[in-house]
Design a protein that fits this description.
heterodimer; A: mainly alpha; 83% helix; B: mainly alpha; 7 helices
């Protein structure tokens, strides 16, 4: 059942992205930025956490989940460290994903060759 | 129906059905990637990691897979079919981090790979961090009362 929920919710979030691409000609880069900021906002108004509880990876794997993580992290940091948490919370919470993207991205760039003929 | 009418009818109908089939592909492929994420969360949970760590490890694993499949030139092929289904999940973020860096390899390791790896990661991190600081400010102000 968890898998079905993850499939359905994750699928729907991707469909929203597809509609944005087809209808508004937003580039994938803008889609990614929009989804991250949207995730922060949806968590701020406390909509995203219930969705994560319901759909698990269906809500955390799309990039809105990255935004949700940022927002959750900053809330926790402000709670613990006060004003300083505003600055430390977001990047601390997303550090695993960011470092992984940069490290693996770099390794892949070093090991492989571009196959696109440009 | 004359030919002209028919052509207009087709023109009217085609974009919608194309969007519909694109959405269906995005739904299925995006859903599958999320199910893979759910499987990974379960596996890491079984290995004894807490909920939060299992979720972070899942993100890291998916980013690894997205980066590797981009290097192997497999991800772009899936993306041609899946559209947003491969853009919106975190694997798509990994893909958009790797592909500009990979293409910039000939421009050198510092201003080529080093700079271009941030082509998409940069905006995502910038606006994500900015949004989180804005949210943090709101949380902080609320915490004062």
């Amino acid at each position: 059942m968890d898998y079905l929920k993850a499939f359905a919710v994750g699928g729907v979030i991707c469909v929203i992205g597809q509609i944005l691409i087809d209808k508004t000609k937003l580039t994938p880069a803008r889609i990614l930025v929009t989804f991250v900021v949207l995730g922060v906002f949806l968590q701020l108004i406390r909509v995203y956490e219930p969705l994560v509880k319901f759909a698990g990876a269906g809500a955390t794997v799309p990039l809105t989940g990255f935004g949700y993580n940022l927002c959750k992290g900053v809330a926790k940091a402000v709670n613990e460290r006060g004003f300083l948490g505003i600055f430390t919370g977001g990047l601390t919470a997303s550090s695993g994903g960011v470092a992984a993207a940069l490290v693996f991205g770099f390794l892949v760039s070093v090991i492989f060759r571009s196959k696109s003929k440009k | 129906m004359t030919n002209k009418e028919y052509n207009e009818y087709v023109k009217q109908k085609t974009p919608d059905s194309k969007i519909f089939s694109n959405c269906l592909k995005a739904f299925v492929s995006g859903g599958i990637i999320c199910v893979l994420g759910q499987v990974l969360i379960a596996v890491f949970g079984k290995c004894g990691f807490g909920e939060e760590d299992a979720s972070t490890l899942t993100s890291i694993t998916l980013i690894f897979l997205g980066a590797l499949l981009t290097g192997l030139d497999i991800y772009p092929k899936i993306a041609k079919f899946a559209g947003a289904g491969t853009v919106v999940p975190i694997t798509g973020f990994a893909n958009s981090v790797v592909s500009p860096a990979l293409e910039a390899k000939t421009e050198g390791m510092v201003l080529g790979v080093g700079a271009k790896i941030f082509t998409i990661a940069g905006p995502v991190i910038l606006y994500g961090t900015f949004a989180s600081c804005a949210a943090g400010l709101i949380y902080w102000i609320i915490s004062l009362f």
